[in-house]
Specification:
327 residues; alpha/beta; Quinone Oxidoreductase, Chain A, domain 1; 2 domains
Amino acid sequence: MRALQIEELSGPDAVKVVDAPDPPATHFSTPGQGVLIDVKAAAVSFPDVLQSRGLYQFKPELPFVPGAEVSGVVVESSDASFSPGDRVAAMTLLGAMAERVAAPLAMTFHLPDELDFAEGAGLVLNYHTALFALKYRGRLAEGEWVLVHGAAGGGGTASLQVSKALGAKTIAVVSSDEKERVASEAGADHVVRSDADWKVEAKEISGGGVDVVLDPVGGDRFTDSLRSLREGGRAVVVGFTGGSIPEVKVNRLLLNNLEVVGAGWGAYVLSKPDFTRMLADELEEMIHAGHVRPIVGSRFPLEQAGDAMRLIEERGALGKVVLDVAE
């Protein structure tokens, strides 16, 4: 099979297509529990870029096949809930950027008819994270205001759609006209610019401050995220794509009764398959209701995966970046 391979940790330029052996049906991350998938599409995300440079917390031995987000057709399953020919979306630890991959049973989900394979590749990581972060960690409720940083990327557009499905009012933070268009398409009620005084604008729009900030960026803007919250507001931390981990002066939390909440979806759900299935069921209802449909931006053939990673590394991605794997 064709597969991407990283042989040295020098970034996107080191990614290349090789001939690799098919994963055996028994090669599941949990012995006896898994699904073998013919891959139609694989998504590219910021962790893939970090991994290509050896900067991600999970550091597989070289060489390795990158990728964790995939959609395709079932070849074989250890469980009767999946049959050969079923359309699925899945998360894997590695190996998604190949023509065939083995995925854990607990992280494989039927792909709703409303979504094509490219959209399915962008479903699990971003939308499960968004629902977990907003509803179960940030306690976002109907009628509340939520501010989303990085709102035009795969995670940002997912967060805007899930927020609207939960009945919230949304403010998107973006850096360009093109990203404003994408955020609006994803359901942003208001859009503010990251290079302007977005904190003041957000407080004016929301009538005194937002209830929840979803922050995948970190860095210097985190302090202003806290300042944009109303009394009792929650800042939900989901990542640090800005490159630096902020520090919080806790007197800010005390004075306005604020909360800073971590939302580490991957670490939380690995040992909780029932909870993961519940998230999938909730998202499927949102899909059927028309609230959720992954926004696919740039699409690349497998051979141009390095270009896809560079697009993300250079902050040029709009929506989800997807590799079309099947020829």
